# Entry
Amino acid sequence: MQQKDYKGYRAYQYLEPGVDFKEFKLSKETGLFPAYTIPLTTAQEERARRLFEENVVISLHDHMFVAPENLNEFFEFRRWGRDSMGYEGLSQSGLDCVFDNLMNGTAMITSRAGWKWDDILFDLGMRLCDIAHQDMVVLGLTTEDIRQAKKNRKIAFVPSLEASTMIENELDRLDILYGFGVRCMGIAYSEGNSLGYGLKEKNDGGLTEFGRQAVRRMNKLGIAIDISHSGDKTSLDTIETSDKPIFITHAGARSLWESNRLKPDHIIQACAERGGVIGIEAAPHTTMTKNQPRHNLDSFMEHFEYCANLVGIDHVAFGPDVLFGDHVGIHRVFASALSISAAHGKKNFEEVDYVAGIENPTEAFPNIVRWLITRGYSDEDIAKVIGGNIMRVLEEVWYDPRSMTVGKKDEKARA
# Structure
């Protein structure tokens, strides 16, 4: 993997713990669970190294923060709104760019319900302040930022939000979030909001009229749209309303495992037909399959192969949705707020303590690439799914200051 320009910075080290902020003992970034590395031959190891060196590697969805060691303190930890990014673990991840979704659904400074405007801005501003005090992670606001990060041995950080709940009925708040650096947003997370319906709603009425206005505004601004947590009708309405390709940043195939958290074939196909990409999800107890009800790297990759066969290799990527800490434990703490029951699905399965092979950001992409190598995928196809497909969509969706337009392609070409 490309060696990153990491000098040992720890989150908020410019401040004095216990004086400037309340200190919590954080989990280990690596070694919390047994390491898992797919073995390769010497020739395959060299090929893996070259693939990381020569291609832009992007996670379409992750949370690069470090959880507190004592999860009984998690609610208090969140109320302080000071997440610590795992810089050391991130430096070893092989990533050149990460769509980091902060902890937006658990931004609970003023409310236990989360998703409040002030709390989201507090979390976002605090993270950007920390990033401004180090030099390995840089803001990824354009595709050129991502390329330059790769060239300079940095990592591009793309601020992302999993829902648009916090904008309420204020369309201009999208402009403000764009000004704060947000470049990817979901429509709804779990509960319905003023835009549309989330995955746990029994009755999905699709995008509201305000939701359609918001989609069009995001198109104009150059914010990529995510439907990972949106209900099925809301997802389809979003795909049809958007002038630009959209992302399913972190999900899998419902055909392989019956869960509202995963997407049915017709939505994956509709997304791909409009040029979009699905990122395969690995958060605990999501991308299991009938063949492999115990969640692990192989069940995760079964979802990848299914989607690639369904819509083509050009429309699949990876959004592991992992973090540093006890992910299963965090899900237990936030079971109601994060709609964990919806993710579990209707089938019986063996609960795991961690997802072997893809538990944290440090091991995720190295094992993904190694898995693809051992299964005989070509360099060209691996390059597409670890970043190339995402870059193609961003070139069309994001605002490009060099051309003074949103995207580089003529919108009529997609009509």
Q: What stands out?
A: DSSP finds 14 helices and eleven strands in the chain. Residues 379-397 form the longest helix (19 residues). Residues 83 and 127 are 7 Å apart (CA to CA). The chain has one domain: 46-397.
